Hints:
Blueprint: H1 14-35, E1 40-50, E2 60-70, H2 79-144, H3 150-184
Antiparallel strand pairs: 1-2
Amino acid sequence: xxxxxxxxxxxxxxxxxxxxxxxxxxxxxxxxxxxxxxxxxxxxxxxxxxxxxxxxxxxxxxxxxxxxxxxxxxxxxxxxxxxxxxxxxxxxxxxxxxxxxxxxxxxxxxxxxxxxxxxxxxxxxxxxxxxxxxxxxxxxxxxxxxxxxxxxxxxxxxxxxxxxxxxxxxxxxxxxxxxxxxxxxxxxxxxx
Length: 192
């Protein structure tokens, strides 16, 4: 429940990781497209034992070797454009990851500030609960002594109950902020 134990978001945050992996994939795609601009050589070799389907066939070994060279022609080839497009998309994915990192860090800082504020409110609410319980107890004691009427005791009890409800609401908001912080940091929210 401590904000200090929740680590600040980094590149391990799933959304950021997704964008970075997408960027890497697009860069590899651009490299693949660029590789098509260079000549390629293919070599093939094979050996086979042949036996024709004739009476008393002579059997023989056949060996083969082959090579081919492919040169790209640049007439209307979309390879350069596709490589450039993939590089642009990779840069865009990196930018989105950077923006996402900034947004998550901003939201994380806001959530930390809210958590600290709620913790201060909880301290005040605990004091209010304590004071209202003591006040209700004193009102009841005065009622038993005949100094106050029942309505005053009920009002004091109601005030005590309202302060407990307010404290419980603050506790729920604190838990919500802790879950938000864990989510933003890329940690799986779980009950401790």
